[in-house]
Amino acid sequence: MHSIVLTYCTQTLPTAKQVLTAEYPLSSIMEISILSASSSKPICKVANLKTSSTIADVKTQFHSQKKSSYPTRQSYRLEPKGKSLKDDQTLGSLGLRNGSKLYYKDLGPQVGWTTVFLTEYFGPLVIYLIFYARPGFIYGEDAASQPRELVVHVAAACWTFHYAKRLLETIFVHRFSHATMPILNIFKNSGYYWGFAAFVSYFINHPLYTPPYYGNVQMYSGLAGFVVNLLFCHQFAEYGNWRIHIALRDLRPPGTKERRIPKATGDPMTFLFNLVTCPNYTYEAIAWVSFTVMTQCVPALMFGVAGFVQMAIWAKGKHRNYLKEFKDYPRGRKCIVPFLI
């Protein structure tokens, strides 16, 4: 009697794999309704999908019906005001079945991150050098024959080095988690960088520009390197910023969107990872503080303050995301300023 009952139970109880397969049959064909995230009105239906299909597959199918909405322009969510879904998420993992709905948001015309970075960094490099190399064209013919202070030449070299480094990093170092951004950003970002470049360079290269109050001592202190209780030099900060970018690049394997907890490496310049989430922003802020001290120029100070405020906002956002994503993320780290912010 007992053997009969055991045999019956063994034959009729489904395995865990059978239950999952019945709930999400990998071979079944699905049709998903696409609705507008703003109005909830139906847009179209995407067919020939499986539970193993990804959001990227949905984007491809949608693009085949709506030619103007290329994949990088599309964003999907489970609720009208929900979180945007990642390309590699499968329909099955999201609990979607035949007849389910996805809400679509048009992100607008997109442009590649590399294009944006190259544009916004190339402009300041060229603009500053125009003011520096052609003072007669900007300030009048007499300006070309007037002598210049040494700090003017040093400032031009620092500015050129900074933006040349940024251009090279964009080409050879950075790995972006997103391929594109809204095309409006290229005008907004370029307006910020190009405008400040003209503002700062106009005053530093002006024939009436006066050198720092403490003369060469003040200028050289902005170049010499880290001096205890004084400041980091421009070049030291630039080197640290570059090394941090290399460390961040190495966190993401080529061709992936993988995210890892950034940590200090064997490179001593990455020690700030022990103190802040975004040490690249910390070094960037140090660089512009040094540039301001070196030139004693108010527009340079304004540029540095504006940049720090924006970088602090970005750093807080990244810090918050790391805390949400990684349970073991170091709680003692600050966002951008060690021990403070």
From TrEMBL:
A GO cellular component annotation here is:
endoplasmic reticulum membrane
InterPro entries, per database record: 3-oxo-5_a-steroid_4-DH_C, SRD5A/TECR, TECR-like_N, Ubiquitin-like_dom, Ubiquitin-like_domsf
Per UniProt, which keywords does this protein have?
Endoplasmic reticulum, Fatty acid biosynthesis, Fatty acid metabolism, Lipid biosynthesis, Lipid metabolism, Membrane, NADP, Oxidoreductase, Transmembrane, Transmembrane helix
Query: CDD domains this protein is in?
Result: Ubl_TECR_like
Q: In which broad location class does this protein mainly occur, judging by the first location in its UniProt entry?
A: endoplasmic reticulum
Kindly state a single biological-process term from the GO annotations of this entry: very long-chain fatty acid biosynthetic process
Membrane topology per the entry is: Multi-pass membrane protein
Tell me the GO molecular function terms: very-long-chain enoyl-CoA reductase activity
Q: What is its EC number?
A: 1.3.1.93
The residues covered by the Ubiquitin-like domain are 30-103
Q: PROSITE patterns under this entry?
A: S5A_REDUCTASE, UBIQUITIN_2
The subcellular location is: Endoplasmic reticulum membrane
* Spans through the membrane: 285-314
| Designated name of the protein | very-long-chain enoyl-CoA reductase
Q: Which organism is it from?
A: Holothuria leucospilota (Black long sea cucumber)
| Lineage start | Eukaryota, Metazoa, Echinodermata, Eleutherozoa, Echinozoa
